[in-house]
Amino acid sequence: MLNATLELSAFNASLRTFLDASPTPFHAVRSMAERLEAAGFAALDEADSWTLEPGKGYYITRNGSSIIAWRQPTRNAAVNLGWRLIGAHTDSPCLKVKPTPELHRQGYFQLGVEVYGGVLLNPWFDRDLSLAGRVTYRNEAGRIASALIDFEQPVAVLPSLAIHLDREANASRTINAQTYLPVVMGQADTKPDFRALLKQRLQAQGVEQIETVLDYELCFYDTQSAAAVGLNQEFLASARLDNLLSCFTGLQALIDGGEAAAGQVLVCNDHEEVGSMSACGAQGPMLGQWLERVMPDADQRNRSLSCSMLISADNAHGVHPNFSDKHDGNHGPLLNAGPVIKINANQRYASNSETSALFRHLAEQVGVPVQSFVVRTDMACGSTIGPITAAELGVKTLDIGVPQFAMHSIRELAGSQDAHGLYTVLQRFVQTDLV
């Protein structure tokens, strides 16, 4: 028991470090790449020819915001046993800076934002916000380059309107995304040049020879660190648990899974929160193009897919004690009671009886409890990369996730035991010959 407790503690500490280091999809992919390289995985460039060695680990990135990592099997094993794939997504709902964002009103410098994904907006008010993402610039040699940026410290806030000025705030206040969300950056006599501020920050980070900032993809984030909370630290509180928690569990399962007969793959796509239709999204060609390169022979590739399986990991709705009527009475997952199999008759989730049964079987082998989630029949159901990837590749698929509260809030809550439980099952999954 002592060793298991230490293992859980170390896992959660590493997860919190990963969450804090990954304020944007670009930073998340960089964090994953660093961990992969420390584990011996080699980076490949999609523009190069590849020479792959059986048993060796590799990874590729696209757009700096999506990543595929894998351990190469033997040729026969790939055909006869297929691939064990784990899928997740790197993006989270947030507020993104507009292309011409500068506002100067009442002596305050503000930035206009767009809402990315299905953001729960109210919790964004009165938080200590910072800014991170990717900046593209022209250097002094006239070449275009990009660099990641992170202001790290609180540089902005979105103040609430005092209740004295809106007596009905607790009963009926709604948020107009255009007029209520411009973020306060500070006070100024004139409108500052935002691109000049970005150039100064990049130079402070050690990026040299910047001539002009040409464009950027930036989002605000909460600077409060991930934390263990609760009387007995039963919970994990953090931004971006949906879905960086799944990225981390899948990454660790791949790294710690070791060599196995079947191929082992982790794919973490960007843009899931806005439909996945992009060059690096799950509805784009990235995973299919990768598979064509690692298995060029179409007959072998199709035979391999027939004995492959994808586990799409994306968090589930835990039953909230104050809103239990929002759940089906028999399908309200509890925090710290194990990962959740997500089921929907209308294929919003890709789980079926065979893929669910295999997950239950593997979970029993490693002593991890399993729950199930079905949305109330009178409510609409969300979706994941699971059905999209299943349709793109024709691979049997399971949708699972850990239960959480406050999904799509600026700060979410999960059980402190569930990520480790999911990791334990996923590690067994990448080692199994069964599908």
Identify the overall geometry: globular
Overall CATH class of the largest domain: Alpha Beta
Describe the biggest sheet?
A: 9 strands, mixed
Sheet with most strands: strand arrangement:
1-2-3-13-4-14-18-16-17
Roughly how many Å is the radius of gyration?
22 Å
Structural commentary:
The protein has two domains: 2-92 and 239-431, Zn peptidases (Aminopeptidase); 94-222, Aminopeptidase i, Domain 2 (Roll), CATH 2.30.250. A hairpin with a 5-residue loop joins strand 11 (227-229) and strand 12. By secondary structure, it is of the alpha/beta class. Helix 3 crosses helix 8, helix 6 crosses helix 11 and helix 9 (353-366) packs across helix 11. It has helices at residues 2-20, 25-38, 75-81, 169-172, 194-204, 241-257, 286-294, 298-306, 353-366, 385-393, 418-431, and strands spanning 42-43, 57-62, 66-71, 83-89, 94-105, 108-116, 129-139, 144-150, 183-187, 210-222, 227-229, 235-238, 263-269, 309-313, 316-317, 340-342, 371-373, 396-401, 403-405, 412-415. The model has no long low-confidence stretch (mean pLDDT 95). InterPro entries: Peptidase_M18.
